[in-house]
Every structure is written in C-alpha cells, then in structure tokens.
Amino acid sequence: MILPSTDTGGDPELALVKLLTDARAARRYDIGFPGATDLGFPALAQILTGQLLNNVGDPWDLGHGRNHTKEIEQQVIATVADLLRAPPSRWGYVTTGASEGTLHALDAAWLRYRDLVVYTSTSGHYSIVKGARLLKLPVVTVRTDAFGRMDIVDLRAELARRRERSAMIVATAGTTMTEAVDDVAAITDVCDELAVTRRRIHVDAALGGIPYATLPDGVRPSFDFTAGATSMVISGHKFLSTLMPCGVLIYAEPPAATGGGRVAYTGSADSTITGSRSGHTPLLLWWALNTLGPHGLRQRAEASRELATYTHHRLQKIGWPTALNPHAFTVTLDQPPPPVLAKWVLATNGRTAHIVCMPGVTRDQIDEFLNDLSVSRPIPAQRRRRLMAVQTAPRP
Ligand SMILES: Cc1ncc(COP(=O)(O)O)c(C=O)c1O
C-alpha cells in the first residue's frame, strides 16, 4: 500500500516513482489473477494521456461530440464478434468489464421477457448473482459436474420445473476458480427438448473467450454463438493485456429493447449501461488485437497453456494435489501454507488455490514458486504415491 503523503513527503513525483517501483516489484509474485501483463502501449502514450475521448452512448450512433473513438470501437466489436463466430446481425459495445456486459445482457433479457428466471451454476462469477439482484430477478443455482461445468441433468430438472417461465441461462466459458467450460450446445439442446423457446443464453467468457477462439475446430469447446449463445462477454484486461479494466459485449442481434431512448443533448442512443464511456479502452483493445493478429493471439494462448501444463506436471512431481482442465491457463492446487501465501498472491477459497498462467507469467516465476512450496511442507513418500495415483487419472 502506498501512502504518498507519509512515504514520500507529499511530493507527487516521488510518490509516482515509488508507486511504479512497488508495482513492478509486486508483479513477480502476482500469479493468482488472470490479468495478462506482457503487452505495453508506448505508441498510444500521447493519445492516452493527452486527449479526452468519450464514447458516450451507442457505438453506431456517433452523437454530437467529435472526441470519441467509436469507429475504432466498431472495429473491435467486429473482430471479437468474428472470433466468437457471431452472425452478421451482431451488435455490442466496449464495457468497463465482463461484469457490466453480464448486467446488460440480464437487463436486455428482462426487457424482452418480464417473467424471466436466471439460471447459472454454483461456479458462476459473483457478478451474475449481483446483476440479477440489482434487477430484482430470481436466480436458480444449478449444480456443477465433477469437472466444474454446469450439470446439464440438474439444469434440465430446474428448467422443467418452470417451463412456463422465460429463461436466461448464464453459462461460463472459463470459470473463475478452475476454468471449466460450460457446454453451451448441450444447454441449447436441453432448452429445445423442453420447448423453452422464450430464452436467452449469455456466455460469460471473461477469461476464456479469446483463447478458446484460437483453438482449431475439433478441439475448440462448444461455447460460442454457433453453439447457441445469444450474447457473450470477454474481459479486455485479462487475455488482451489492456492494463486498464474493460470488456467487450457482443450480441447475436441488437437487443429489441434497451433501457433508454435517444438522448437529445448527447445526440446518441442510450443503449449502454453507463452514459459516458472510455474512448481509450477501445483504442487499447484495437491496438492489442491488430498488432497481435490471429497468429499472435494463438501463439500467446499456446504459450500460456504450455506453461500451465508444465506447472501442473511439476506440482504432481512434488506430490502436491493439483488439477488442470482442458485448454486451461488455470492450475488448481491444494492451498499452500501461510508462508507461501504471504509471499505469493494467489486466489484462494479456503481449501484450494489457483495459479493463472497468463501471458507475462514466466517459467522462472513458476520454478521459484514451486521451490517455495516444496520446502514449505515436505509430503511423506507414502502420501505422495497415493496422490500421484489419483492425479494421473485420465482427464476428460
Ligand atoms: C468468469 C468471470 N466472469 C467475470 C469476471 C469479472 O470480470 P470483470 O472484472 O471484467 O468485470 C471474472 C473475473 O475474474 C471471471 O473470472
């Protein structure tokens, strides 16, 4: 924690130097949260720091102001929509993050169907229940299967219980703790079988959306618009390393109704959750997507998956209980002891913890972490052998 007034005598320049030095030093030990840090944006420095850019209102309704990046935002939406295989009728906008995207999708579904019930799994992100709470929508929590995915049998039972009600199913492509991917095609099939036609399927693909989209057909999970999604959201500060929180929300088609109408003084449609919107984050997204291109995106995703596999295997070798879902960057492990947690920033839920091998995390960091873990609590050889037998069971 940096306290400029006490640590640096109130000198803002010194405070900044200290802030940057501390942030850079802390980065090495921050391997538990999914923010990529490998991209920098020096080419955008002038425009990011010397120009007000406000994309207030709808991306396709330019409005009165000229200090915006809505044309760039439209390109970002087109690129992300292509990656997620959205139909040509697509619509979307750049949000403050995945949470806002999910809130928008919940609101759009409720505007269409006033008797809406929201379904999500026990592994869904807290933003889903929060969004439903803000909109006063009932939520049904569906069980997860052994791999952490939404349990389709339980979903079927819950949907069947309320067939007369419209349904908003929020699936997750890359759950927060284990990076399990809900089977969106199976969710669509269940809705069809039960004739739940008054429905929306939103996919929270905050972390996994872009990396899974780089996988070839055949191994690419069934998670996108071709599987039945009606809207999807990704976070920009996760895989795309925008360094500032943001997200991209995509719909298969523009929601028939959005909360507000046209606002006279902005000259733009009020189709987004917030009024003023950053014009800088679309620039960061656009720069990342265009300088990397499809090849660069794929390479970064592959490198992260390889590092995750390496981490998982090394944990198995030292006999530390661990799990890794297919295509995941997220390696789950039994919670390390306090001295290790004091040094390394890991996401924990009391029993397990995880490391997310985002672009920017190196093998060298992982090796240092594993070394700390090995010396922290040696595991007896007999227990180690037992654990190894469990962990080498085939993955799905
Ligand atoms: C699955 C999932 N959804 C949503 C979020 C929240 O995303 P944001 O911080 O962009 O709102 C996260 C963050 O980790 C997440 O893992």
Overall description:
It is built from 13 helices and 13 strands. It has 396 residues and is α/β, with parallel strands linked by helices. The chain has 2 domains: 25-39 and 294-388, Aspartate Aminotransferase, domain 1 (Alpha-Beta Complex), CATH 3.90.1150.10; 45-291, Aspartate Aminotransferase, domain 2 (3-Layer(aba) Sandwich), CATH 3.40.640.10.
Question: How would you briefly describe this protein structure?
Answer:
The protein has 13 helices and 13 strands. With 396 residues, it is α/β, with parallel strands linked by helices. The longest helix is centred in the C-terminal third of the chain and has 38 residues, at 280-317.
Key descriptive features of the protein:
13 helices; alpha/beta; Aspartate Aminotransferase, domain 2; binds pyridoxal-5'-phosphate; 2 domains; disordered C terminus; 396 residues; globular; 13 strands; four-stranded antiparallel beta sheet
CATH topology of the largest domain: Aspartate Aminotransferase, domain 2
Tell me the strand order in the biggest sheet. Answer: 1-7-6-5-4-2-3
**Residue share in helix:** 25-40%
Low-confidence stretches: 387-396
CATH architecture of the largest domain: 3-Layer(aba) Sandwich
